[in-house]
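ok new one. same drill as before - structure tokens go in, u give me an amino acid for every spot. 324 of them this time. try not to just spam alanines like last time pls lmao
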């Protein structure tokens, strides 16, 4: 049992003021991850600031693209007809995440802030540098079937669990944040970070900042697919996932976006593969060359070497499904 204070705010400024005065405070919205973390003693905020009443629930599309308020529900975004029509990759990725009940509670801002599902992180009796810096990484020599194959460090090999984030990375989204210093925009691919020597830090949000919205630019991708490979058909985190967005004209791929999930501490954008695909004829694709190239930098651990073969097959299948 941990004691904490609870308060509600109804404006962004008031929320930021509370955070500035209470550095040990956490924002709470849907609470679908934070409450679990608190129950297990992994997160111990001194104060919860309930931000559900902030005016950040908009879902709007204009000539520049899609803007989603940080407090829009995952399910509201996935069921929005304009989002379905213009951003099918994003909708597929949201619907691949969690369960319908959780998508009805979880917010877009919370989705990208959710923490790794590494089991060592959630068990306070085990070492974990992310939960308790300096205590060691239980997964490194432990059971690491779900863990990273790209960008890990000897301090942490966890993966980022959000499906939606993989699509947002592929679609060149931007995270809009506010603080007492003003507003700033973070390219989505720079929002999450690699563990390096400070694995306790999941992302590049600065102290005192609040996510207000996510912007997804207008695009002309006419072939999209999000493929998630997991141990059971629903409510499981990705072993690997692949987000594909292609602009195909006739037989030619004119532009491509590819990102993987379940393989790194952040959504893993595949820029070199995108370049290889751009200009290719769709009946002439060499998946072996493409996927060998993608996986050449992979580093595996005792239990997750299967992710290389699985990842290669998933990339090929996701592209083929997008092209159907
Ligand atoms: Fe902790 Fe990261 Fe190691 Fe998991 S992989 S035990 S989250 S340090």
């Amino acid at each position: 049992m941990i004691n904490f204070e609870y308060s509600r705010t109804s404006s962004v400024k008031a929320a930021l003021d509370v955070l500035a005065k209470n550095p040990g405070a956490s924002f709470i919205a849907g609470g679908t991850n934070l409450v679990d973390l608190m129950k297990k003693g992994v997160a111990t905020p001194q104060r919860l600031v309930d931000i559900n009443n902030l005016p950040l629930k908009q879902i709007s599309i204009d000539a520049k693209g899609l803007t989603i308020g940080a407090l829009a529900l995952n399910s509201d975004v996935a069921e929005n007809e304009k989002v379905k029509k213009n951003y099918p990759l994003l909708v597929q990725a949201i619907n691949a995440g969690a369960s319908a009940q959780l998508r009805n509670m979880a917010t877009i801002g919370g989705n990208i802030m959710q923490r790794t599902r590494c089991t060592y992180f959630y068990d306070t009796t085990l070492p974990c540098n992310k939960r308790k810096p300096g205590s060691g990484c239980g997964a490194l020599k432990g059971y690491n079937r779900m863990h990273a194959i790209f960008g890990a460090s000897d301090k942490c090999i966890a993966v980022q669990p959000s499906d939606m984030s993989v699509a947002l990375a592929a679609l060149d989204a931007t995270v809009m944040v506010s603080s007492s210093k003003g507003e700033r925009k973070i390219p989505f691919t720079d929002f999450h970070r690699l563990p390096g020597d400070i694995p306790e830090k999941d992302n590049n949000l600065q102290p005192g900042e609040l996510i207000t919205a996510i912007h997804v630019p207008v695009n002309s991708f006419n072939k999209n697919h999000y493929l998630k490979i997991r141990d059971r058909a629903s409510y499981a985190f990705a072993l690997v996932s692949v987000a594909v967005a292609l602009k195909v004209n006739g037989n030619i791929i004119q532009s491509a976006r590819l990102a993987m999930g379940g393989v790194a501490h952040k959504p893993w954008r595949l820029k070199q593969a995108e370049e290889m695909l751009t200009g290719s004829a769709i009946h002439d694709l060499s998946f072996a060359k493409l996927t060998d190239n993608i996986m050449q930098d992979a580093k595996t651990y005792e239990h997750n070497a299967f992710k290389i073969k699985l990842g290669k097959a998933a990339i090929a299948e996701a592209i083929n499904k997008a092209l159907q």
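Residues 306-323 form the longest helix (18 residues). and btw The two ends are 53 Å apart (CA to CA).
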